[in-house]
Design brief:
Rossmann fold; six-stranded mixed sheet; ABC transporter transmembrane region fold; alpha/beta; 19 helices
Length: 599
């Protein structure tokens, strides 16, 4: 099944999210149910302390201020004020405990979610990255998870607390003033319905706003990764204008969302003020008529304030929940994407490899998902023996690099099968398969760390001495020791502090340290000058010893010593043999060689 997250899901209309989308967080919330239960206890206790306050206030007004004896009145006032202070202390303690527990949960759940999304993305096949921009993924890892953290870590708790307080205040008001509260409930209904209508619009705009922010992040990530090309074409102003357009779209969408939320907030505040004033008016009439005490009125007013405040806060929280629901939906889309390439449920172990691995392609036909009408390989059959060095040559687009992509199971072929040491690659776990293979790509990948760490990436448990031995075999030791901090020198992002030949030798040292039985060399010297190429070629010859090697090369001078040369054209093998036999045959290889050696 192809990845479910595609460009269409990014650039298309914003999907409708709802608070139900937050249910996708349940697998991340469930492991911490004990802490959630404890936070719930603190939340309820804080709400109860708040609801007890009006009762204590009523006692103060009716009991502490009604006595005609000044001494008794003073003692009663002290007692009631101590009760009020006790309620305040309980409220402060329970609120602090609730805040800590909920904040911890927000941080922990968000970290788990971010880790899960990142780990899931790392397992996707290259097909996923053909249709999904890196900036879009980064936006979901940062902006969306931050929104989720805001809700889980504070807003959700605030909403639950105000729900408990609002329901409690409502229950107390209904108990004390059933007729008045019947009318209040009707007014609340008139407030809630328009709020829900506004909420739907805020929800749609929230998702659209997050998508537009992701668009600008995708542009920035793409351009910053290609800054030398941008500057070489003097395209800085053009790219800045393109980013300006994206951020302006995000701004306009955000303003529409903010305008809708502002209308929602204004409506809630005005409606709640009307509710409070109406309740106060009815209460004062009851006091004047003698059917209600002053303390009872004070209690009622405070409960109405609590109810109105709870409704107002819930309106705000609902808006934040809608934004978090949109973010959660985007994250669940990412987690729901499934790589078409995965390890089998019951993997078959590979036999021990001695002196290299044997490779066989049997009738393989393959089309890239982005080019379904054009086969990259067609009925491709090839056997490579243990310890053999086989070169793949041919014009651009002939299918040479596709052989490597399929061998590493970045993709699966539509027809045929691929065997590694006699076992189908589809029957082997991806970890075991790729553990048998080392690759030196044309563009060496250097991570933002030290030279030692970059080489050790090939085998993380390797000792420093083994790293140095691999660097020496790759003819990289001398230039590494000449760096300011030697092997501990930070190489910069993508190895910007090294030359092309130095980066390539680091990549070769990494492959030597891994010591795989099968080595793939993908045009490892094509972008180098003559001096660097000689050094890298010597390093490659060191890496190729005692293992099977497949070499993709455009420069035919680099493959003349191969045991066998396979000539590809339009996804098919058109010739194979040694350099001498192919030159004597006068076919495609001979014509390619003649063109290169004449230059």
């Amino acid at each position: 099944m192809a990845s479910s997250l595609s460009a269409s899901s990014i650039s298309g209309p914003a999907a409708k999210a709802s608070p139900r989308s937050l249910s996708g967080l349940l697998p991340f919330v469930r492991p911490y149910w004990k802490r959630i239960a404890l936070a719930g206890v603190f939340l309820i206790m804080a709400a109860v302390a708040t609801l007890v306050f009006p009762v204590a206030l009523r006692g103060l007004i009716d009991g502490g201020l009604s006595s005609s004896d000044k001494g008794q009145q003073l003692l009663a006032l002290r007692e009631h004020f101590l009760e009020l202070f006790g309620v305040a202390v309980a409220l402060g303690m329970f609120s602090a405990a609730r805040f800590y527990m909920v904040s911890w949960l927000g941080e922990r759940i968000t970290a788990d979610l971010r880790n899960a999304v990142y780990a899931h993305v790392l397992e996707q096949s290259p097909e996923f990255f053909e249709t999904t921009q890196t900036g879009e993924v980064l936006s979901r890892l940062t902006t969306d998870t931050t929104l989720v953290q805001t809700v889980v870590g504070s807003q959700l708790s605030l909403g639950l607390r105000n729900t408990v307080m609002g329901l409690g205040a409502l229950a107390m008001l209904v108990w004390n003033n059933p007729y008045v509260m019947a009318l209040v409930l009707l007014i609340i209904l008139l407030v809630v319905l328009p709020t829900m209508w506004f909420g739907r619009r805020v929800r749609r705009l929230s998702r659209a706003s997050q998508d537009r922010i992701a668009d600008s992040s995708a542009i920035a990530a793409e351009v910053l990764n290609a800054i030398p090309v941008v500057q070489s074409y003097a395209a800085e102003s053009r790219e800045a204008a393109r980013f300006d357009d994206a951020t302006e779209n995000a701004f306009n969408t955000g303003i529409r969302r903010t305008r809708a939320r502002a209308v929602l907030v204004a409506f809630i505040i005005i409606a709640n003020a009307a509710l409070l004033l109406w309740g106060l008016y009815r209460g004062t009439q009851a006091v004047l008529a003698g059917t209600m005490s002053a303390g009872h009125l004070g209690e009622t007013v405070v409960y109405v304030i609590i109810l109105a405040g709870a409704v107002a806060v819930l309106g705000e929280v609902y808006g934040d929940l809608l934004r978090a629901a949109g973010a959660t939906e985007r994250l669940m889309e990412l987690l729901g994407s499934r790589s078409p390439v995965s390890s089998p449920a019951l993997p078959v172990p590979l036999p021990a490899a001695h002196g290299g691995s044997a490779v066989a392609f049997e009738g393989v036909t393959f089309n890239y998902p982005s080019r379904p009408a054009l086969p990259a390989l067609k009925d491709f059959t090839l056997s490579v023996h243990r310890g053999e060095t086989v070169a793949l040559v041919g014009p651009s687009g002939a299918g040479k690099s596709t052989v490597f992509q399929l061998l590493l199971r970045f993709y699966d072929s539509a027809q045929g099968r691929i065997l590694l040491d006699g076992v189908s690659t589809r029957a082997v776990s991806l970890h075991d398969l790729r553990g048998r293979i080392g690759i030196v790509p044309q563009d060496a990948v250097i991570f933002s760390s030290s030279a030692l760490d970059n080489i050790r990436y090939g085998r993380p448990d390797a000792s420093d001495a083994e790293v140095v031995a691999a660097a020496t075999a790759a003819f990289a030791h001398d230039f590494i020791t000449a760096l300011p901090q030697g092997y501990d020198t930070f190489l910069g992002e993508r190895g910007v502090r090294l030359s092309g030949g130095q980066r390539q030798r680091i990549a070769i040292a990494r492959a030597i340290l891994k010591n795989p039985p099968l080595l793939l060399l993908d045009e490892a010297t094509s972008a180098l000058d003559a001096e660097s190429e000689r050094m890298v070629q010597a390093a490659l010859e060191s890496a190729m010893r005692d293992r099977t090697t497949l070499v993709v090369a455009h420069r035919l001078a680099t493959v003349q010593q191969a045991d066998r040369i396979i000539v590809l054209d339009h996804g098919r093998i058109v010739e194979q043999g040694t350099h001498a036999s192919l030159m004597a045959a006068g076919g495609v290889y001979a014509r390619l060689a003649a063109l290169q050696f004449m230059e």
